[in-house]
């Protein structure tokens, strides 16, 4: 089984109430090879919600308490991002997920790039909180952008 960000399979759960439909990933869901998750919703957020970025590092730094996830207005939402990451990890472990495909750039889900914490639409190398936790537990994480390269490999999982 594969876990996939809910926004990538058409659920309108992004911070701004939209989705980022990827038809190949939606097909995996339709073929019962994937299950949709949204770490932010699992953490207790509603949709829409205020945009947030990691300040002071990346997802690994958040896990270690060296960085925080902050809303654009300044609210600290680190605890909710942590909760969502742990619930997602539990789901992945319960399902014995072979891989997880998450939305790039998200403070939860980014697997190679996140926003830099300035709310100026600038991206930097780094991972989100959920990705960091999953990787720390040996779970392979892909972005929707790298998925097309490994489609046939993932399809066999």
Describe the overall structure:
The radius of gyration is 14 Å and the shape is globular. It has one domain. Helix 4 packs across helix 5. It has 157 residues and is an alpha/beta fold. 33% of the residues lie in helices and 18% in strands. It has helices spanning 23-30, 39-43, 59-63, 78-94, 129-136, 144-147, 151-155, and strands at 2-5, 34-37, 52-55, 68-71, 99-102, 113-115, 123-125, 141-143. The mean pLDDT is 94. It contains seven helices and eight strands.
Short recap of the structure:
The protein is of the alpha/beta class and 157 residues long. The protein is 33% helix and 18% strand.
Number of strands: 8
Distance between the termini: 7 Å
Please give the largest β-sheet. 4 strands, parallel
Helix content: 25-40%
Structural class, from helix and strand content?
alpha/beta
Portion in beta strands: 15-25%
Mean pLDDT: 94
- Going across the major beta sheet, what is the strand order? 2-1-5-8
Low-confidence parts lasting 5 or more residues at pLDDT below 50? none
* Apparent shape: globular
Count of individual domains = 1
Question: Which sequence of SSEs, written as H and E, runs from N to C?
Answer: EHEHEHEHEEEHEHH
**What is the gyration radius calculated from CA atoms?**
14 Å
- The count of helical stretches stands at 7
């Amino acid at each position: 089984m594969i876990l996939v960000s809910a926004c990538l399979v058409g659920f309108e759960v992004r911070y701004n109430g939209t989705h980022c439909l990827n038809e190949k990933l939606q097909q995996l869901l339709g073929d019962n090879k994937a299950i949709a998750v949204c770490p932010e919703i699992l953490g207790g957020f509603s949709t829409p919600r205020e945009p947030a970025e990691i300040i002071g590092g990346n997802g690994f730094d958040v896990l270690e308490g060296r960085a925080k996830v902050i809303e654009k207005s300044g609210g600290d939402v680190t605890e909710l991002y942590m909760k969502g990451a742990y619930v997602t990890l539990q789901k992945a472990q319960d399902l014995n997920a072979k891989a997880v495909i998450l939305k790039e750039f998200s403070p939860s889900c980014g697997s190679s790039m996140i926003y830099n914490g300035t709310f100026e639409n600038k991206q930097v190398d780094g991972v989100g909180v959920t990705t960091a936790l999953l990787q720390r537990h040996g779970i392979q994480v892909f972005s929707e952008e790298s998925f097309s390269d490994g489609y046939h490999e993932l399809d066999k999982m």
